[in-house]
Design a protein that fits this description.
By secondary structure, the protein is mainly α. The protein has 2 domains: 85 residues, Rna Polymerase Sigma Factor, Chain: A; 66 residues, Orthogonal Bundle (Arc Repressor Mutant, subunit A), CATH 1.10.10. Helix content is 77%, strand content 0%. It is built from 9 helices and no strands. Helix 4 packs across helix 8, helix 7 crosses helix 9 and helix 8 packs across helix 9.
């Protein structure tokens, strides 16, 4: 127990340059899905600048990648608030359409996503599009893992309700 407390109280060496080389493209795509094409590069750069400034305070409580994506998420949240923007769900669908034929199901899902709360949108995108585990999401947005599971459950119920009501039309 004492060893764990000592480990948590001391900073872990973190090589931000290696993190940038390994995750730059993934961070850009992550930011793109949250702030859109025109702000993605700025958000990505700000993420790595913040990581560089905070590298000495990284304690190793989570994986360095999870820590980095948490910084990216907070950076995107700040930019979205500052620019008064919602998630760029239409741009995401447009990008998917450019890579193949437009998918009617994806367009319907995007419309349904727009109708659920931002908290639910966030966990759905983090889990389903970004592929993060419950634990990683919990660490990134600083909520208990059980809350992540609950939000996902309620988000999927809301999405199912939205999609079923569209079928009835």
């Amino acid at each position: 127990m004492l060893t764990q407390m000592l480990r948590r109280s001391t900073a872990v060496h973190l090589d931000v340059e290696t993190l940038a080389e390994a995750h730059y493209d993934a961070i850009w795509r992550f930011c793109f899905r949250r702030v859109g094409r025109e702000l993605a590069a700025d958000a990505t750069q700000e993420t790595f600048l913040t990581a560089l400034r905070r590298a000495s305070s990284f304690r190793g409580d989570s994986d360095a990648k999870t820590w980095l994506f948490g910084i990216a998420l907070n950076t995107c949240r700040s930019l979205s608030r500052k620019e008064k923007r919602d998630l760029p769900l239409d741009e995401i669908i447009e990008l998917q359409a450019q890579s193949g034929t437009p998918n009617l199901s994806a367009m319907r899902l995007t419309q349904a996503l727009k109708k659920i709360s931002p908290e639910h949108q966030e966990v759905v995108i983090l889990h389903e599009m970004d592929g993060f585990s419950y634990l990683e999401i919990a660490q990134m947005i600083e909520i208990p893992e059980g809350t992540v599971k609950s939000r996902l459950h309620h988000a999927f119920l809301a999405l199912r309700k939205q999609l079923n009501s569209e079928e009835d039309l």
